[in-house]
């Protein structure tokens, strides 16, 4: 007596595929949750070991441009003065984001020299201004824009 096995097999295959799909989706959700918690934990650890200083936000005065705030490190002050001299910024933020060793800086610059330039050209201009200093850094975070 031959029983038709096709419907049973196709149902079993469909069930197997559904189960596999559910398992895969569950694994993806778990890995996303794990990644998010690992990222949060890493960010927390970084913040605990490398406390960040507040950005040295400075708004230009009418006479001489931005004034460097108190509390800048020597490296931050050198970068601040060089950018102030060459780019005449309206707003200038300089922060050592390497944890104090001076190997990475965050720069936020608003300058009229950036008017009409693409972001890449603005960044190249900053790289030209910082020339030798930037060669000794591991990295830099640049935010540049024209005023207004």
Any key phrases for this structure?
alpha+beta
Q: Count every helix, treating DSSP H or I runs of 4 or more residues as helices.
A: 3
Number of strands: 3
The N- and C-terminal alpha carbons lie at a distance of 86 Å
Shape: elongated
Point out poorly predicted stretches.
42-58
H/E series, N to C?
HHEEHE
Radius of gyration in whole Å, from Cα?
Answer: 27 Å
Mean pLDDT: 77
In terms of DSSP E residues, the strand content is: 5-15%
- How many strands, which pairing sense, and closed or not: the largest β-sheet? 3 strands, mixed
Helix residue percentage: 40-55%
Category from helices, strands and their pairing: alpha+beta
Q: Please state how the strands of the largest beta sheet are arranged side by side.
A: 1-2-3
SSE topology:
Layout: H1 6-49, H2 74-87, E1 91-96, E2 104-110, H3 119-135, E3 139-145
Helix pairs in contact: 2-3
């Amino acid at each position: 007596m031959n029983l038709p096995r096709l419907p049973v097999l196709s149902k079993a295959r469909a069930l197997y595929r559904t189960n596999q799909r559910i398992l895969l989706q569950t694994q993806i959700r778990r890995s996303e949750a794990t990644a998010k918690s690992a990222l949060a934990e890493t960010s927390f650890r970084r913040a605990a070991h490398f406390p960040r200083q507040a950005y040295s936000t400075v708004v230009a005065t009418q006479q001489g441009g931005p004034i460097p705030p108190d509390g800048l490190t020597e490296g931050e002050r050198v970068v601040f003065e060089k950018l102030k001299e060459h780019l005449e910024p309206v707003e200038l933020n300089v922060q050592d984001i390497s944890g104090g060793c001076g190997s990475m800086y965050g720069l936020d610059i608003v300058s009229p020299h950036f008017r009409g330039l693409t972001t890449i050209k603005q960044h190249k201009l900053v790289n030209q201004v910082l020339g030798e200093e930037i060669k000794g850094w591991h990295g830099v975070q640049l935010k540049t824009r024209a005023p207004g």
